[in-house]
Structure to design on (76 residues):
């Protein structure tokens, strides 16, 4: 069972999926396990830097969705 099956909200499932993708990518690239924004400050290739930037954009978008879900649930 993957982590994505344990999450209940759409944003939680998306975050779990992104986390899994990120972990797989780090392993494939031979990079250390650190946050994407921290890794962008390290010495990475231009292609890795671009990938990390897109990943951060996707993560930020899911965080916005999570906030919307929270507000909708709170409003009832």
């Amino acid at each position: 069972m993957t982590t994505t099956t344990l999450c209940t909200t759409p944003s939680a499932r998306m975050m779990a999926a992104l986390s899994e993708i990120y972990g797989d990518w780090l392993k494939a690239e031979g990079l250390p396990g650190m946050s994407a924004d921290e890794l962008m400050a390290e010495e990475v290739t231009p292609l890795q830097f671009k990938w990390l930037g897109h990943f951060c954009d996707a993560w930020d978008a899911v965080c916005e969705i999570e906030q919307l879900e929270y507000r909708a649930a709170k409003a009832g």
Notes: The chain has a mean pLDDT of 91.
